[in-house]
Design a protein that fits this description.
- The protein is an alpha/beta fold.
- It has one domain: Class I glutamine amidotransferase (GATase) domain (Rossmann fold, 3-Layer(aba) Sandwich).
- 27% of the residues lie in helices and 21% in strands.
- It has seven helices and eleven strands.
- It has a seven-stranded mixed beta sheet with strand order 3-2-4-5-1-8-9.
- The model has no long low-confidence stretch (mean pLDDT 95).
Length: 229
């Protein structure tokens, strides 16, 4: 299992994350792109954006699915990796769970030693649950079971932290401090990425990330900003 979970950055912000992904994948296969977090269900412009975003990845192209039925009919092992994009985290998780794709992705990761890249919402779903993003996303789909894949050592995750206006950061901080009395949370800026390989968690990036635990916040500096296989 290999997870590359980015804090929501684009282009130059996440060059190291893309370089890591490029070092992991089979370059003779396509990337399977899941855009379901995006609020526009036509996903207009998503493939064009992702084609530019992943232009420096050595691959055979990108396949974007537009429906959960289409996703369920895919053989994940035919692809270099799965790429899950950002948007509304509740919509994304709801689509995956209702369709059965959640369990299919878990099997791909655990049983087939799969590779997944998640950005923003696509990263948060791999934490313990979605409670960490309550101040960021609206649960417009009425999702009741917000448990995630829980593959970050029992931590929930918040992305874009400290990458937006100070008022937004302060709101998130106060909320996470209270939430952390019940569960631990990682909060990462857009430039940082969590890399999980077979249960081992590492951080790459250019800015500090934050651990919320027992009602306290700890600032963590990244000492090695590159992990290349």
């Amino acid at each position: 299992m290999k997870l590359v979970l980015n804090g929501g950055g684009t282009d130059k912000q996440v060059e190291d994350a893309r370089a890591l992904l490029n070092s992991l994948i089979d370059h003779n296969k396509k990337i399977l792109y899941i855009p379901f977090a995006w609020p526009d269900s036509t996903y207009s412009g998503c493939l064009e954006f992702m084609t530019g975003e992943l232009s420096d990845i050595d691959k055979q192209g990108i396949d974007m699915v537009r429906t959960t039925d289409e996703l369920m009919n895919k053989n994940f092992n035919d692809y270099a990796c799965i790429y899950i994009g950002g948007g509304n985290t509740y919509k994304l998780l709801n689509d995956l769970k209702v369709s059965g794709a959640f369990d299919k992705i878990r099997k791909y990761l655990i049983d087939d030693d799969g590779i997944v890249y998640g950005g923003s919402a696509g990263a948060i779903i791999f934490g313990k649950d979605l409670d960490s993003c309550n101040t960021d996303d609206e649960n417009e789909v009425g999702l009741t079971d917000n448990t995630g894949f829980n593959l970050i050592n029992g931590y929930s995750l918040l992305c874009h932290y400290t990458s937006r206006e100070p008022e937004r950061t302060e709101l998130s901080k106060n909320y996470l401090l209270e939430l952390s009395k019940k569960k631990p949370i990682y909060a990462i800026p857009e430039e940082d990425t969590i890399y999980v390989e077979d249960g081992k968690v590492e951080f790459i990036g250019t800015r500090p990330y934050y651990e919320f635990n027992n009602g306290e916040i700890i600032t963590k500096e990244i000492r090695n900003n590159k992990i290349l296989k």
